[in-house]
Write a structure and sequence with these properties.
The strands form 2 sheets. Strands 1, 2, 6, 7 and 8 form a 5-stranded antiparallel sheet that branches. Strands 3-5-4 form a 3-stranded antiparallel sheet, with helices on one face. It has a single domain, classed as 3-Layer(bab) Sandwich (Archease, Possible Chaperone, Chain: A, domain 1), CATH 3.55.10.10. It is of the alpha+beta class. The longest helix has 19 residues. It contains 2 helices and 8 strands; from the N terminus they run E-E-H-E-H-E-E-E-E-E.
């Protein structure tokens, strides 16, 4: 499994697994965080699967600040994955503030996809959580997942 991509990279962690995520803006950061999380789950960068039925979800996450929001967003996606047995291949953020995100997500049933589940994630944690804009204006986040 590769450990570094343009949008995210795996971070070694003692008992869990982490990601360092990048984005040109907050919206891209949140989408790349979701893509990174599903990379951890499948071992592959999930891309569009042709000729398979798609299902759409509207996800609305709320929080008190940007750090809480990225945790809420990822945990909401993880919940849908766990309960609907789907993986996501397309993300459209309709609106976003520091405390709220609303997005339309396209999914495919895991059983209809070419992807396999290689790692189960229990939750997104607050351990070492950091969301910030770097000196070049790009957004970055450090996120640890409980496995």
């Amino acid at each position: 499994m590769n450990s570094k991509f343009d949008d995210f990279e795996l971070v070694e962690h003692t008992a869990d697994i982490g990601l360092k995520i990048y984005g040109k803006d907050k919206r891209e950061l949140f989408i790349n965080a979701a893509r990174g999380m599903f990379f951890l789950i499948t071992g592959s960068v999930v891309s569009s699967v042709q000729d398979k039925p798609k299902k759409y979800f509207t996800v609305e996450s709320n929080a008190s600040n940007i750090e809480d929001l990225i945790i809420s967003w990822l945990n909401d996606l993880l919940y849908i994955y766990d309960t609907e047995f789907v993986i996501f291949d397309e993300y459209t953020i309709n609106s976003m503030t520091e405390k709220k995100i609303r997005a339309r997500i396209r999914a495919i049933k895991i059983e209809d996809s070419p992807y396999q589940i290689i790692k189960e994630l229990k939750a997104v944690t607050y351990h070492n959580l950091h969301v910030y804009q770097n000196k070049d204006g790009r957004w970055e986040a450090n996120i640890v997942f409980d496995i």
